[in-house]
Amino acid sequence: MSQTTKNSEKKVWVLVSSLKENVKQEELDQIAPKVSLLVDQWHYEGKFVWSGPLDNNKTGMAVFEATLDEAKKMSEENNAIASKVLDSYLYEWESLPFLSILD
Questions:
Q1: Domain residue spans in the chain?
Q2: pTM, whole model, 2 decimals?
């Protein structure tokens, strides 16, 4: 399989974000509209499966379908907006075995 074909294959991705230590509410309030707009844009394009906070409200998860390049772009856009407030990590769905029970 060529690299181009592999990069254009859609997969399910998980973007996990958690609040950095000592984040002030004002900092979170500043990025929230931008992150929400980013999520809305990707949802409008039909890429999002689910997004929302986890039970502690300090961690959030977005599950979406995209190519490798699109997933990287989403992660980069998210980091450009929120990297001072959130630590974010991009994972391929299949690399998170505990999520396979949700299939």
A1: 18-93
A2: 0.79
